[in-house]
Amino acid sequence: MFKPSSTPGFGRCLTYTPSLIIVTNYFNKRRGLAVGMATAGVGLGMFSFPPLIGGLFWITNMFVFKICTRFKCTLYLDND
Description:
By secondary structure, the protein is mainly alpha-helical. Helices cover 86% and strands 0% of the residues. The longest helix has 48 residues, at 31-78. The chain is elongated. The N and C termini lie far apart (54 Å).
């Protein structure tokens, strides 16, 4: 089976390499700058998305926690 470390590597292989090939096909004059910007965009995305996704899951978990707490409180108050 796949290890957790090999699955993201395989996914990156399927997306990263073709994207660089597409960039090199469209830019002839400043190909190095275009490939450099595309590569920097990948690094920036890897740096910025985990905190954003972590914050999104935190907000979602807090929302679910609030709903469950309110539901439990209403059940408790209705039983009196």
